[in-house]
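sorry for the late reply, my laptop died twice this morning and i had to redo everyting from scratch. anyway the thing you sent over, i finally got around to it. pasting the sequence first so we're on the same page, its 500 residues, then the predicted structure underneath. double check i copied it right bc i was rushing
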Amino acid sequence: MQEKIEQLKAALATAVDLERASYVLEWDQEVLMPEGGAQARADQRATLDELAHRYYTADEVGKLLDELVPHLDELDPASDEAGQIRVAKREYDQRVNVPADLVNQISQTSSLAIQAWQKARAEDDFPAFEPLLSKLVDLRQQWAACFDVGENSYDALLDYWEAGMTYDLIAEVFAGVKPPLVELVEAIVAHQDAVDPLVLEGHFGHDEQMAFSREVTEALGYDYERGRLDLAAHPFTIPFSSDDVRITTRVFEDNVVSCLMSSIHEGGHGMHAQNTSPDYYRTVLDDCKSMAIGESQSRFFENVLGRSKPFWRYWYPRLQETFPAMKSRSFDAFYKALNQSQPSLVRVEADEVTYGLHIILRFELENDLFNGRVKVADLPKEWNERMEAYLGLTPPNDAEGVLQDIHWAAGYFGYFPDYLLGTMWSVQLWEKMQQDIPDVVAQIESGKFDAVLGWQVEQVHRHGNKFNLPELSKKVLGGPLDWRPYMEYLKTKYGEIYGL
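ok and here's the structure:
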């Protein structure tokens, strides 16, 4: 059997290489490529993605899987061998019924759509973006139709990003968390005078923000010998291998922490990818495809750690040294402002409490879109009405409304709910980490982060793509994802900040 497994890995190595080569072009498109290169880049990425698809679904791969899958029960489910077979089978099944030309069209259209989205967002021009978005929705509908998922085609899109997830399963979790979340939001809104948001405002130099973001992410464990920090319209992380993982951020010179928190978020993704087992190089296990697991890492480092008192007891004096305007602002005032909870328009700038409502809105809207209850042309109106219903705000323009996220332009329908699922799971990981490392809070306060990263590497990062969320949650925590610890965390933290 081992010989067949090695043959399978060899057969798929070219597919993995082609997929990563497409990632390089994607990074370049969003960071460096001139606007005029859009069509050529779309053609290039489409060629690579179609070739990768053909290698993933080659007859040789199908035959090897036919020989190996019947023997899965003979292997330890947690073994690398079982993982290679199980994940390769999932990749094969996800692709084999999808026509190669459809893969080409989706790749090409998404490349063009990203460029169109950047321009439309900058110019607040949804109608200019609408034709490509409509085409992408149609193409993803065709893609979803390749799978037998029952009546709800949205389930195929959800399953792509998190194996086994369906609308009904996620809706059940969100239905549990939504009422107490709304209740907490309403309680905080009634006590807004407890926090002074002006503490974070002023003028903070671009270069100084980038340098401080690099200093903090490096201290947390992001390895700059195997990565880099650049600017992008919408921050993202992309791994070409565990030895080359790029992160991006953006800078607002009127806010001292926006760039930093974005950098820490992407750094969480980056550390996850950098610390995948080297044994998985050029295999299907090398790039974690579970977006809920992935987001648990970005949201843990950004929020559970990066917005905590212990973290800032160490870093606040350094922030004050970097930005002299902060020297007159107290630690308590800064901590409260950093964690201010208030309904806001933009998801990536949203606080921990209201963030979940941004995700639930997108989840429900995508489900309606793919079930024909909402048309692409009606998205701005639907978005604004739901923002008013969920957060009591109406975007003044589409740039701060329906155009704010890159995900739809990239064809990433079904991704959004994993942000909230991962956020919930990050709190469960934190509870387990504190049990396993009793002095972890004291270590964080003294600027020692090796144990934090080491725990995440051992429990999460090294496994790469071997487990989906339910499997890894059972392995690490002994049980499934649960929204209740997340709500207790929010109530405790924000109850203290707002005196609830």
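DSSP finds 20 helices and three strands in the chain.
thats about all i looked at so far, will dig more tmrw
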